[in-house]
Each structure stands twice: as C-alpha cells, then as structure tokens.
Amino acid sequence: MGFAGNERNGLFIAIDANIGAGKTNACHAIASAAMAAGHPTRVMEEPTHHPKFNHFLQRYYDDLQTEKNTGGGFAMQMFMLCQRYEQHRLAVEQAWGSNGTIVIQDRPIYGDTVFATTAMERGFMTAEEYDLYVDVYRNMSRDVMPPDVFVYLDVSPEECYDRMHSRGRSEEEGVPLDYLQQLYGNYQKLLSEMRRRGVRVLTVDWSGFGPPVEIWKRIQKLVDSDSTWYEELSFSLAKEPRVPIAPNPDA
C-alpha cells in the first residue's frame, strides 16, 4: 500500500467530535471508503462494551445534571483515560506494524481532555482531581506517538443537541445545550494546540454527514503532501495546572 508522506504502510487516523455529531457512524463510513479502495481497515470504537462503562457514564451524567460533585466526573475521566491509552498503543502497533492496516480510532486520548477540562470548569471535578488527571495524562501522552491524521467533525452545538435527543439515549436526556456549547469551545482550543504542535488536523463540515469517500480522499491527500510530519511529539494538557489546552466531544 504505502503513502507518499508516510514511511510505513498503514495509517493511524483519529476521529473526534462533539456529543451527538455522528462520530461513530462517520468512523465506519470512512473505514468503508478506505476498504473499498483496497486498504485493510479496522475501527476502534469507544469502550461502551466494557462492563464498567455504563456505571461510570451514569455517574458522570448524574453529576452533570445535578451540578454536584459526587466523584462521578473524576471516576469517568480516569476510566476513559486508561481505556484510550490502551487503545492508542494498540492502534499504533497495528497501523505502524508490518501488515499495513489502517486503524481508525473513535475519539483519541486527546479528545478526552476536552471533557475533563469541561468537567472541571462546571464544578464536577475538583481542582485537585483535575491536577491529578493532568499529571497522569501527561505521563501517558509522552509514551505514545500522535495519529497520522486527526479528523475533527465540525457540527454546531445546536445541531448536536438535536441529534443527541433524536437518538433517544436515556442517559443523555438531561444533557443541557450549554454543556455542548462549552465542549465545542474547548474543542476549538484543542485543535489550535494540536496544529501548533505539528499534527495533521483535518476539520470536516459534518452538518450534512459526508460524503465519506471525499473525506477519505482528503486524508490521503493530507498524508501524501507530507505538509507537517514529526519524529517525536507529545501533548501536555496545559502549561499551567487547570488551564485547558483545548476542550472536548462524543458520537
């Protein structure tokens, strides 16, 4: 296979977006486009099948909706940080190994910092909890290489809110619009920070859902152009504790 701007055969593509944007569907649609072009492709979905996922998620949303900190925010963010880290290591191993697989990750470790920052800003993570999260995140992110391409699906918070409610997940019923707006703002900071650090960032208008084939072509073009590559890169959540580098999303 091979790509002009990439010495390896495979690719590690991270896809992120706000809650309700349609991220998971986009991952599979883009994967289908890559497979149709002859590339072995795997999607790493969010760890929703983990036996502890629903427990932590419900605690997180309970704290969000009651505007109280019972530890749900910190527990969920630490759980997801550990899951993302393991997924990230596996994605690098498979994408940059000898078999030339394209690995698409449904929200990378970096996107989770958006949710942690927002939880801290809204008061359901304490400053002490957030500082601990940042320390663990920094240590983990230093240990992994960033993806070849970071794809951000840009959808307005208002549209995400409508999509979120239309899919009818009970745990999301009480999620307020201003929470999605806050996540959106923090995502913009994250994208700026990633670009500043030399990551290939592809922002896609996902208000109309596609077309995935064109997104796949843009990913190939971005990689082949070798516009910004790096030998080593690590993200720090913030230069100063409790200062977000850029905020968060979900599918």
TrEMBL record:
EC number(s) given by UniProt: 2.7.1.113
Database matches in InterPro entries: Deoxyribonucleoside_kinase (IPR050566), DNK_dom (IPR031314), P-loop_NTPase (IPR027417)
CDD domains attached to this UniProt entry: dNK
Claim: Kinase is one of the keywords in the record: yes
Record's GO cellular component terms: cytoplasm
Occurrences of domain Deoxynucleoside kinase (ranges): 13-205
Highest taxon of the lineage: Bacteria
Keyword entries, A-Z: Kinase, Transferase
An example molecular function term from Gene Ontology annotations: deoxyguanosine kinase activity
UniProt keyword Transcription present: no
Protein name: Deoxyguanosine kinase
Lineage: Bacteria, Pseudomonadati, Planctomycetota, Planctomycetia, Pirellulales
Originating gene: dgk
